[in-house]
UniProtKB/TrEMBL annotation:
GO molecular function, one term: myo-inosose-2 dehydratase activity
Enzyme Commission number(s): 4.2.1.44
GO biological processes: inositol catabolic process
Name of this chain's protein: Inosose dehydratase
Pathway connected to this protein: Polyol metabolism; myo-inositol degradation into acetyl-CoA; acetyl-CoA from myo-inositol: step 2/7
Keyword Endoplasmic reticulum annotated: no
Catalytic activity, as annotated: scyllo-inosose = 3D-3,5/4-trihydroxycyclohexane-1,2-dione + H2O
InterPro entries with a match to the protein in the record: IolE, IolE/MocC, IolE/XylAMocC-like, Xyl_isomerase-like_sf, Xyl_isomerase-like_TIM-brl
Length: 297
């Protein structure tokens, strides 16, 4: 069982409107999204493209519904742009998140990423050379130090189609960054999609994990993506991802590892799929019930 005083439960707005493909859920407003998150029993949220950018307006809307911002995606370009360009934007975002009450900022390296392109996700991923690895890891350490000064933790999101996708890439990134400055944003869906053992990865890196994305995977859709050489986003439209308990990820041992190691932080449902097919409120309630049953949260 997870400790309610230590572990908080959140949900991402991507089930209502997908910022990577805004036509998915374009009809869903910000107010509907946050109201339904609260109605389904969630208390945390990440930031989506439709969220007000004025912190006062955003905070009021969230307070009315008992919600708190716990993280936001931040794209780094450490391997393709001068470090300073990324740092300026990173500091702005980290300060904003800190003011909103978040404890982490979720970084993903988007230099050379194919996640938003039409390239085949299983065949055309970029692999970094030693020089690019150094740019990435040194840059992450520097950003992590900035985040620490601001009072927030940098968590790194491994992701399909990016330069840190595979188990080996996650190993190398973590081995070459300072545990005091760079933590892991553990995403169950991205490890499973890539063919890694999410349970083993959770066990291996439990001491580096500071934020968790609970994402389930429909294996038959991943197989279709492989067979038909589809892109990451084509897969999302087909339904590669779903809410915890609705796919093939084995969540129970993951919850056990988090509980046994006194994990403190958020577990956040993040299940992008077509809202016209998977009603966001219905799926949020389904996820909430599953998590309550398996964790006691
Ligand atoms: O954390 C995430 C943010 C999304 O934009 C992304 O594509 C999704 O798959 C994810 O894990
Ligand atoms: Co994620």
């Amino acid at each position: 069982m997870l400790d309610k005083n230590k572990v908080k439960l959140g949900i991402a707005p991507i089930g209502w409107t997908n910022d990577d493909m805004p036509d998915l859920g374009k009809e869903n407003t910000f107010e509907q999204c946050v109201s339904e998150m609260a109605l389904a029993g969630f208390t945390g949220s990440e930031i989506g493209g439709k969220y007000p950018t004025d912190p006062v307006v955003l905070k009021k809307a969230l307070d009315l519904r008992g919600l708190t911002i716990c993280n936001c995606w931040f794209s780094t370009f450490l391997t393709t742009k001068p470090y300073e360009e990324t740092e300026v934007e990173f500091i702005k975002q980290a300060k904003f998140l800190k003011d909103m009450g978040a404890k982490v900022i979720g970084v993903s390296e988007q230099g050379h990423s194919i996640q938003g392109t039409d390239k085949s996700i299983f065949e055309e991923k970029y692999v970094m050379n030693d020089e690019e690895w150094k740019l990435l890891c040194d840059g992450l350490n520097k950003l992590g130090a900035k985040a620490k000064e601001i009072g927030i933790s940098l968590t790194f999101h491994h992701h399909m189609g990016t330069v840190v996708q595979t188990e080996e890439e996650v190993d190398r990134m973590l081995a070459n960054t300072d545990p005091e400055l760079v933590s892991l944003l553990f995403d169950t869906g991205h490890f499973t999609y890539n063919g890694a053992d999410a349970v083993a990865m959770c066990k291996k890196y439990i001491n580096r994990i500071k934020h968790v994305h609970l994402k389930d995977v429909r294996p038959e859709m991943v197989q279709k993506v492989k067979d038909e050489h589809l892109s990451f986003l084509q897969g999302v439209r087909l339904g590669t991802f779903t809410v915890p308990g609705d796919g093939s990820v084995d969540f129970e041992p993951i919850f056990d590892i988090l509980a046994e190691n006194n994990y403190e932080g958020y577990v956040l449902v993040e299940a992008e799929q077509d809202p016209a097919i998977a009603n966001p409120l219905e799926y949020a309630i389904k996820a909430r019930k599953y998590i309550a049953e398996k964790t006691g949260l």
